Structures are given as structure tokens and as C-alpha cells.
């Protein structure tokens, strides 16, 4: 974004701030408005640009980040400066600093129309509902802040905490909880500080969206289905255990088994298992066992759930497709035209536990040796039984000392798939440099 | 035989989808679970339905119609023509466009919706849909392998008959989609237990997210750290849920049983065993409140299958052996072929006792406010609609109404003496005599 845009934004927000002042200016305890404002603008100017850059890199979190940046900025100030900036003195009520905070809030949230929950808590004037709340909660957080620690981290914590504190009055326990809660975050933060300006918790703090674009529409009160069911007869009862006794059913299943054995002497059946087709047949026959058995013996219904047998030709085509396209079943389907994608997927899960799969692996390695490692992981994937942590270092949690950079961490929060350890390992293994480029493009 | 009426919803086709190469979400796990359920002999203990398939109209009860239309139209072939929408709807790496995407959504959403409807009609006490539970999907976008939020749609359906619905989420990830959908209402309380911090997906689920407006204090978040074991988990889970049940008194519960909180999950970082996970399900079942059980995450195929098969058996009160029976996917359970394999701890429990105690206390303090908040009372219950509906439903569903009726009533009198609709039931009981 261009510099002049920044300027206009600042102006804009200032005018809004002015409005805000007018609305709020009924506060008699306000001190030294002018000097404070100067102070404020300075901070703001310097901050805006860096924030912009940051925003461009991290489009998803603009609002909270912005806010935290302000707080972060302040943390580097000496305490007396900070106190002056917040107009703090022993006898001054904290209202002025609330106004400060509100202004900042105002600015950042007026910029984006997205309604952020946390914002709302600290409130803009348009968020009428939360206005009162925010005043008191901010005061609360200020009191906490004054109580000894000027670090913005604490103020952040308390502002997060204030909802609980305000109503729960459990400040003692809460602070203990906070220590525990933030422990890991602090630790990482101190390690990060030199190389990366953003504190750790800033990144993994995300707010809840509020607005018509986010919430479900919950109607008031209850309603009835009336005479006509909205979805009548669209499901199908396949089995009801309550009509016939258990003994009868077992007896029926045994008989069915005998019949199928007689029909297909080759198929081996071990023990009595529930046969969904047979049970469904029973339901279809109105739970008339004799009728179901009669129909079964006529072999009206093909009983075995098994896939219609794959021909050698089909299997070869399938393997070929797998070799070329990997597990892209849509592409494989173009090879094996006689089967649907669903059938391919179903077949795949049996095939990969068969002897053919082993042969296939060997063939594949000989054909494309460079793929060896990859394919190994690919095929292990579904069974990936006890892939041990030494082989797959656990990146997602030891990020402080890991090569994962901040952008990657953030991406992980955005995309569930980034937490996949196999994916991480594979990526690393293939090409480290390449993976860096990838992630940077992803996040942009 | 179970004294609960359990309905099981399974679409035989739902397992035959594939998210694409190297994607950890594997719908085929559902086929494996179903096969295990069959081979353990659990199938004939439940009423089985091939569920209704959700229409675009149903999905639009929560989602934006533009988004649903996009899901309906996009295919791997025409992907390029939709390229400008992909980012907009967050479809891409996490949530790829795969063959049959819309059918997949329609199947799992329909199953959850069907379950909610059966609960509403009071046909069953427990509805099971392992294919559902995609709790990350948002109104306007896909997220975290989830496209359509079947849970939200099912809860909206339950809200037609139930003044207060409780949503419980034991997935390792925060149930952000459901929380967001009901963030402003007190008619749904969302309770999520999840890993939080260190950039863990999805980044929300902070303990200070408590809801807003009317819904203030009706979102409960219990952030946990990695490596939590059975004992620590139940130490948090049971008191919190007990408290929620006492204070909120929901008339229906939706339980998301994400199995990625199990030990050894490909994406998760908790150390729960199948037994510990199942314990939570049993705990909730024992409250005897109408319950919709859905699946969710779970990315180590065989563990998911073990977990949900075991939980199916818990829900119908059947004991099943620890040895995996002979079935077509048996090789996936090598080398031990056990239902409850030993827990291999790879991650130390980072949750100190003190932390857990304090987080429970924090939750208690927030829940205290629920009492003071106005809650929806049951005054809106439609006059006699429920009993007649119920009668119709029973007449439709039961082949032998006389026998069933007495059985049902008997069960109910034993099971649920404190149900809010006890009177309706009694009335019903009298009428049918």
C-alpha cells in the first residue's frame, strides 16, 4: 500500500477520533488532552507503516495484530513515559487511558468492516451494546496494570482476562491460572524477541467473528413438523432389531450362511457375522424368515458385498494410473474407464494390503528410484501405524527451536493440513529451499 | 439388550471418496468402522438407516447460498473456471476439490439431519452418525477439511423441538465452526475441550471466548496442552460436563467424538486411549438425554476405527472382545489385532494438576453466570403437537405397536425420571393404554 494511503487513513481515523471525543467529552476528569494527543499521534505514525507491512504479509489477522502492535510498542517505552502517555497518576482515575484505547480501537476497526468479537469487547461507539461493558472492563484492566506491571503483555492478558475477572471476582486464582496459561507462551516469546518483532502469542491469538456473515440464524421459540414431514421417506430402514427375537435372528443368519455356502462353495466364511444384505432382505420381507430364506435360496439378491471381481486388465491399468498420477483417483479413472472413482477408492484400500501392492512397490522403485522415499511415505500413510517420533520429528510443538518461521507457524493455524507431520517431513526431505518458497507464496 | 433405542445412520457410499494424494482425511475410515461394527455383531442390535441425503436447501439453513452453489458446481475438471472463488471460500489445500465433493457433503449432512429429526420425533434416544461431525466449516467458507457444517444444521433442526441444546466437542481441535454459529444465542451451549496454543489449528478456543450478547457465557472453552492422558482428561471433562448439565439442563445433546484426540494420531497431540475416549462418551450417554453422536477428526485410520467401533458398543451397552474379529480390513490392525492397543506415550503430559484444577475453576466461575442469565424456558412448547407426532411416529415405525409401546414406556420410566417432558410422556403413556 502506498504512503499517502496511510496518511489518509490516519486523517480519517483522526476525524473519527474527534467525533468520538465529542461524544465522549462529558468526562470532567480528563487531563492534559493536548500533550497526550501529541504523544499519541507520534506513536501512531511510526506504527502505522510497519503495521501495514505486516498486514500485507498476514492478511488474516489485521485487526488484532494492529492492536497488539500498539501495545507492543508501548512495552518498549520506559515506564514513566508510558504512565504519562496514559495520563496516569496516583489520583487520576483511569478514564483517560480508556479513551486512548478506544481511539486506537476506533481507528483500526473503522478501517475494516469485519466485526471482531474482541474489538467489540473493548468497543467502538458503533458497537452500542458493548459500550458500557467495555468501559468497566477497561477500567478493570487498567487497575490491574497500575498494580505494578507496566508490561503490555500483562495488559493484554488482563484485557483478555477482564471478562472473567469482572464477573467472577477470582483475580487471585485467575492470575495463577494466567501464569500457567501463559507460561509456555512467555518462554517462546523471550526466545523469539530478537529475530522477530512479533511476540509469540500475537500470532496464535485469533478472535471470533460476529455478524450476519458468521452466525447461524436461530429462530425464536419452537415449531412443529405438522402433518407433512419435511423430509419424509427419504431415508430407508435397513434393519430393525426389535421385531424378532435375538435367537430367531441368529438362527436366520446361520441358515443364510448355509445357503450362501451352498451357492458359492469357494467363499470362506468364518463364524457368524451380521450380514447386512440378509438382514435387509428380512426387513423387505416384512420380517418373515421363511420368505426371506426362500428368496435367498432363489438367489434373487446377490449376497456377497464384495466388489464385482476386477479383471487383470483393469488391475494393471489401475496400477499404471497409480504409478503415473499417484493417489489422484480422478486421474486414474481416466485410465480405468470401466470403474467409477468410488470403486477405485474402495478397491485401493484392499489392493494396498494385497501381495500385488508389494510387487507394485518393487516395480515402482526400480522404475523411479528417486521416488523411493516419497512413495514409501505415501503408502505408509493409511496404516502409518507406529511411525516413531524420531523419524517424524514433532515440528508442531517444538517450534521455538525449530526451523519453522513465523509465517509458517501462522499458516499452520490457518490450515489444518500443515500440522501433518508426514507432510512436514516430506517437504523437508524433498527440498528445503523449495519449501521455503512454497510457504512464502502460500501465505501471500 | 440395551434399554435405549439406538439408531445408526450409515450410507454405504460415504466411504468411497478420496480427498486427494497425501491428504490425511480419509473418508474410507467410515467403511472400515462399518465393517467392524458388522463383524462384531453390533449391527443387529441397532436400528439401521440408510440416511436421507441433504439437499442444497438444507445446507443453506446455515450456509450462504452462494457458497453452497459453488460446492454444487465445482469439480476437479472445471476448477480453473472457479479459480477466483477458491480463495474466497477457502477451498484449496486444506479443503481440496475432489470428485464427488458435493455428494459427500450431502451424505454426511443428511445423516446428521436425519438423526436430529428422529430425535425430534422421539423415535430414538441415541442417533449415531460417524460420517458427520465436520465442526470447522463456517457459514461462508470451508475450513480444516470441513465443507458443510452438519452439526450446525442438525442443531438447528433440534432447536425446532428443543429449547436448549448442548454441544460437546472432544476433538483435539477447537469446534470453532459450531461455536461461531451459535456465539450469540443462549439456546445452544457449546463446550469444547481442545489443544490450544502454539499455533495449533484453528487458533481459536481461548478460555476467554465465552460468547456474546444473549450468548454470553454460553460458549465454554477448555483449552488444554499437549500430551493429556486419560486420567487428566477425565479430571477436567467430568466436573465441567457435570456442572454444565446441572446448570444448563439441556433437552438434547450433540456429541462430537473427534478421534484425533487419541494417542498416536497423525495430526493430534493428545494421549488418550480408546478407553479414555470412550469413557467420555459413556459419561454423556448416562445422563439419559436425547443424544446425537457424530464423528469428526481422526487421522490414523485404524485408531479411528477402533475408537468409534468401541463407542458404538458402549452406546448400545454391548460388551465386545478386545480381539479384532476376522474381516476384510483386518490387515490394517496388524500387528496386535487388538481393539485397545497399548498407549505409547510420545508426548509428555504438559498439563499440570494445578493448571487443570484452575481451568476447571475458571469454567465454573463463568458457568455461575449462566444462572443469572435469562434462559429460554420451555413455555413455547407447542401444545399437543408433540404427543400426536410421537404417536404417529411410533405407529409408523413399529410393526407391533402394543408390545413396543409397553417396552418403550417401561424403559422411559426407569431411565429418565427427571426429563423435562416427563409429563408429556406420561400423558402419552395413558393414552396408549
Structure description:
The complex is a heterodimer of chains A (444) and B (433). Chain A is mostly helical and 444 residues long. Chain A is built from 21 helices and 1 strand. The longest helix of chain A has 25 residues, at 33-57. Chain A is flat and about 95 Å long. With 433 residues, chain B is of the alpha/beta class. Helices cover 39% and strands 9% of the residues of chain B. In chain B, helix 1 (29-39) packs across helix 10 (301-315) and helix 8 runs parallel beside helix 9 (274-285). Chain B has an 8-stranded parallel beta sheet with strand order 2-1-3-8-7-4-5-6, sandwiched between helices. Classes of the chains: A mainly alpha (444), B alpha/beta (433). At the A-B interface, helix 8, helix 9, strand 1, helix 11 and helix 15 of A face helix 1, strand 2, helix 5, helix 7 and helix 11 of B. Strand 1 (236-239) of chain A pairs antiparallel with strand 2 (47-50) of chain B.
Briefly characterize the structure.
The complex is a heterodimer of chains A (444) and B (433). Chain A is mainly alpha-helical and 444 residues long.
List keywords for this structure.
heterodimer; A: 444 residues; mainly alpha; 21 helices; flat; disordered C terminus; B: 433 residues; alpha/beta; eight-stranded parallel sheet; 14 helices; globular
Amino acid at each position: 500500500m502506498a504512503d499517502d494511503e496511510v496518511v489518509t487513513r490516519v486523517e480519517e481515523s483522526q476525524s473519527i477520533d474527534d467525533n468520538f471525543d465529542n461524544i465522549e467529552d462529558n468526562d470532567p476528569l480528563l487531563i492534559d488532552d493536548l500533550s497526550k494527543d501529541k504523544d499519541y499521534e507520534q506513536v501512531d505514525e511510526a506504527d502505522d507503516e510497519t503495521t501495514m507491512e505486516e498486514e500485507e504479509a498476514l492478511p488474516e489477522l489485521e485487526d488484532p495484530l494492529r492492536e497488539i502492535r500498539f501495545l507492543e510498542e508501548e512495552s518498549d517505552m520506559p515506564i514513566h513515559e508510558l504512565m504519562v502517555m496514559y495520563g496516569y497518576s496516583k489520583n487520576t482515575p483511569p478514564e483517560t487511558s480508556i479513551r486512548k484505547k478506544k481511539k486506537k480501537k476506533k481507528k483500526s476497526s473503522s478501517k475494516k468492516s469485519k466485526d471482531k468479537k474482541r474489538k467489540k469487547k473493548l468497543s467502538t461507539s458503533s458497537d452500542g451494546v458493548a459500550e458500557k461493558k467495555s468501559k468497566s472492563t477497561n477500567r478493570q484492566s487498567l487497575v490491574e496494570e497500575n498494580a505494578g506491571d507496566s508490561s503490555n503483555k500483562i495488559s493484554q492478558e488482563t484485557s483478555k482476562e477482564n471478562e472473567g475477572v469482572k464477573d467472577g471476582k477470582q483475580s487471585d486464582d485467575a492470575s495463577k491460572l494466567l501464569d500457567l496459561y501463559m507460561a509456555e507462551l512467555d518462554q517462546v516469546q523471550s526466545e523469539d524477541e530478537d529475530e522477530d518483532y512479533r511476540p509469540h502469542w500475537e500470532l496464535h491469538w485469533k478472535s471470533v467473528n460476529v455478524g450476519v456473515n458468521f452466525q447461524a440464524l436461530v429462530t425464536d421459540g419452537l415449531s412443529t413438523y405438522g402433518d407433512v414431514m419435511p423430509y419424509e421417506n427419504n431415508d430407508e430402514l435397513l434393519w430393525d432389531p426389535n421385531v424378532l427375537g435375538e435367537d430367531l435372528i441368529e438362527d436366520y443368519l446361520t441358515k443364510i450362511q448355509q445357503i450362501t455356502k451352498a451357492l458359492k462353495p469357494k467363499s470362506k466364511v468364518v463364524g457368524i457375522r451380521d450380514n447386512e444384505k440378509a438382514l435387509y432382505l428380512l426387513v423387505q420381507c416384512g420380517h418373515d424368515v421363511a420368505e426371506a430364506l426362500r428368496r435367498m435360496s432363489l438367489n434373487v439378491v446377490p449376497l456377497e458385498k464384495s466388489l464385482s471381481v476386477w479383471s487383470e486388465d483393469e488391475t494393471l491399468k489401475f496400477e499404471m494410473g497409480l504409478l503415473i498420477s499417484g493417489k489422484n483417483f480422478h486421474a486414474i479413472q481416466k485410465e480405468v474407464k470401466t470403474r467409477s472413482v468410488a470403486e477405485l477408492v474402495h478397491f485401493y484400500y484392499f489392493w494396498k494390503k494385497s501381495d500385488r501392492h508389494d510387487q507394485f512397490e518393487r516395480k515402482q522403485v526400480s522404475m523411479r528410484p528417486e521416488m523411493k522415499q516419497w512413495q514409501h511415505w505415501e503408502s505408509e500413510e493409511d496404516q502409518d501405524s507406529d511411525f516413531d517420533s524420531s523419524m517424524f520429528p514433532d515440528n508442531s510443538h517444538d517450534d521455538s527451536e525449530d526451523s519453522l518461521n513465523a509465517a509458517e507457524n501462522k499458516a499452520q493455524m490457518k490450515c489444518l493440513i500443515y500440522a501433518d507431520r508426514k507432510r512436514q517431513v516430506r517437504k523437508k526431505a524433498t527440498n528445503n529451499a523449495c519449501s521455503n518458497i512454497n510457504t512464502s507464496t502460500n501465505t501471500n | 439388550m440395551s434399554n435405549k433405542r439406538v439408531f445408526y445412520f450409515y450410507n454405504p457410499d460415504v466411504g468411497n471418496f478420496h480427498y486427494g494424494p497425501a491428504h490425511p482425511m480419509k473418508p474410507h475410515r467410515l467403511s472400515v468402522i462399518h465393517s467392524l461394527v458388522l463383524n462384531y455383531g453390533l449391527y443387529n442390535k441397532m436400528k439401521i438407516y440408510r440416511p436421507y441425503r441433504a439437499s442444497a436447501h438444507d445446507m443453506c439453513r446455515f450456509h450462504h447460498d452462494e457458497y453452497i452453489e459453488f460446492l454444487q458446481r465445482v469439480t476437479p475438471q472445471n476448477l480453473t473456471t472457479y479459480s477466483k472463488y477458491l480463495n474466497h471460500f477457502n477451498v484449496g489445500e486444506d479443503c481440496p476439490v475432489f470428485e464427488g465433493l458435493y455428494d459427500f457433503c450431502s451424505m454426511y449432512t443428511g445423516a446428521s439431519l436425519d438423526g436430529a429429526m428422529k430425535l425430534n420425533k422421539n423415535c430414538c434416544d441415541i442417533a449415531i452418525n460417524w460420517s458427520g461431525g465436520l465442526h470447522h466449516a463456517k457459514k461462508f467458507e470451508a475450513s480444516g477439511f470441513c465443507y458443510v457444517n452438519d452439526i450446525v444444521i442438525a442443531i438447528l433442526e433440534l432447536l425446532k423441538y428443543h429449547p436448549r441444546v448442548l454441544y460437546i466437542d472432544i476433538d483435539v481441535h477447537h469446534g470453532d465452526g459450531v461455536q461461531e454459529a451459535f456465539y450469540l444465542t443462549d439456546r445452544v451451549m457449546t463446550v469444547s475441550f481442545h489443544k490450544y496454543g502454539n499455533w495449533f489449528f484453528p487458533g481459536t478456543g481461548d478460555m476467554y471466548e465465552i460468547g456474546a450478547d444473549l450468548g454470553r457465557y454460553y460458549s465454554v472453552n477448555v483449552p488444554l496442552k499437549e500430551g493429556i492422558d486419560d486420567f487428566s482428561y477425565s479430571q477436567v471433562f467430568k466436573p465441567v460436563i457435570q456442572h454444565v448439565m446441572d446448570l444448563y439442563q439441556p433437552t438434547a445433546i450433540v456429541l462430537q467424538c473427534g478421534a484425533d484426540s487419541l494417542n498416536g494420531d497423525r495430526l493430534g497431540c493428545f494421549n488418550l486411549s480408546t478407553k479414555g475416549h470412550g469413557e467420555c462418551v459413556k459419561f454423556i450417554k448416562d445422563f439419559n438425554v436425547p443424544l446425537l453422536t457424530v464423528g469428526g477428526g481422526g487421522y490414523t485410520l485404524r485408531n479411528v476405527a477402533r475408537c468409534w467401533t468401541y463407542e458404538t458398543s458402549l452406546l448400545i451397552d454391548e460388551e465386545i472382545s478386545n480381539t479384532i474379529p476376522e474381516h476384510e480390513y483386518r490387515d490394517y490392525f496388524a500387528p496386535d489385532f487388538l481393539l485397545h492397543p497399548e498407549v505409547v506415550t510420545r508426548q509428555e503430559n504438559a498439563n499440570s494438576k494445578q493448571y487443570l484444577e484452575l481451568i476447571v475453576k475458571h469454567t465454573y466461575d463463568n458457568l455461575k453466570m449462566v444462572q443469572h442469565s435469562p434462559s429460554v424456558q420451555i413455555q413455547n412448547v407447542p401444545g399437543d403437537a408433540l404427543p400426536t407426532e410421537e404417536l404417529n411416529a411410533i405407529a409408523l415405525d413399529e410393526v407391533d405397536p402394543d408390545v413396543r409401546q409397553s417396552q418403550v414406556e417401561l424403559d422411559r420410566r426407569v431411565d429418565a425420571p427427571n426429563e423435562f417432558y416427563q409429563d408429556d410422556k406420561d400423558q402419552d403413556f395413558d393414552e396408549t393404554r
